[in-house]
Amino acid sequence: MNAAMAAAPPVKIDIDNDLAPLKKLGFLYLIIFVYILISRILDIHLSFLHLPFILSTLAAITAIVSGTILRGTESKVGILYLVLTALFVIGIPFAYWRGGVVDVLREHWFDTIMAWFLITGLTLSYSQAKRLLNTIAYAVITAGALGLVYGRLTAEGRLTLVQGRLANPNDYAATLLFGLPFIWRLFRGKPAFMRIGILVATAPVFYCFAKTGSRSAVLGLIVMIILAIAQAPVITKIVSCVAVIILAFGAVMFMPDHLRARYLTFNNANAADSFQDSTSQLAAGYAASSTESRMFVLKESLDITLHHPIFGIGLGNFAAYENAAALQKAGHKGLWVGTHNTYTQLSSEAGIPGALVFISILVLCWRSMSKLYRKTRRDPRPAARDVYLTAVAMRLSLASFCTFIFFEHAAYDVWCHVVTACAVVVAREANAHLARLNAATQPAVVDLPFAAGGYAPSLIRRSPQHS
Fold first, then answer.
1. pTM (two decimals)
2. I need a labelling partner for 212 at 20 to 30 A (CA). Which of 121, 186, 287, 435 fits?
3. Which is it for the CA torsion 29, 31, 32, 36, positive or negative?
4. Is-contact 389 367, C-beta < 8 A?
5. What's the CA gap between 433 and 428, in Å, rounded?
6. CB 38 within 8 A of CB 139
7. pLDDT tens across 338-350, in order?
């Protein structure tokens, strides 16, 4: 019996055309919302339009009607976000100031969790996941351009926007930092003239990033660079190391004195005396004072964690609690600042269980990106190579993010959780994309004719990528 199995019909690699119009419309609302959320382009003059609220509401309606709003719960990370929200609510009766917890939940966390589920619920294909990352890249480029036009310098010479969320130099630096890998991904694979255009558009991002004077963001950048070099080929490692050393030396040499004073000053109280001009002395003094206060609130947050390990003192309560403790112990007011550490912010305000859930979220996101990275690292197929570059970009963004939040408190802010939402979406849709790609390139199985002893074993014709 001579027979050949019929060739399987080609498998569609991209499912965008299969999506219902309502789902496509919901994704359109989503990417516009994300662009405004990251770039903060409306904070300067048009905040009264409330477009983020309108767009997120429209996106939520489409996600609910189309039945995708809870798709994020299909992942372990989504379940952990629900657990984290439940812990926040359960801790209200045990809070130092219950009204403050309710305010944080209403004004910050519920918006954050809704944005997370919108991103994970309305991004329904790998091509949409790429467009989401591209949107973040364009939003960060826009934020850099806004710094040139609407930037202002603080008393210590740090660049911020004139108003809005990016009026904080650390938040501004963080926004620019997390988007850098996505700009790099946008840059790869483009024609030469487009690469030049992207480089020109990205120049303000690096300029404004350096001008923010954020030491925590610089540490995040260093971790990002080390990871990027570590996963590069040997020749690229050598060239990259030389380039980084030259660029770092040039940046230090041409950097204004007051920024150099801030970046090079940590906790030396007499550091300001080593600089000549008043602005540099002020920057060095602020930097030393900032480091000292950060160490103090870190110890305080750990002490609170030990005394309130289960439920914490309540969301957003650290500053008020620390002030009351200072009045009771020393008879003077407290610092009235946050913990400057997202991990201890959660452990002190939401208890050790809350901190462990958040850390578990980060670990799961990192593991999913690492698995995707290893799966596609040596796959020569163009489609798989594209997934590999996406996984690299997500790993770099996650690494810098986890480093930055060790020095800043941002546990309840929406931008902080956009990174994890992107990781979940990329892992889910990229793996589905690879599964369809593998199914489309499965080799045909052919039965050979009768041999003397019966059927000969079937042979599988392997394509180059399977050999």
1. 0.86
2. 186
3. positive
4. no
5. 9
6. yes
7. 999 999 999 999 9
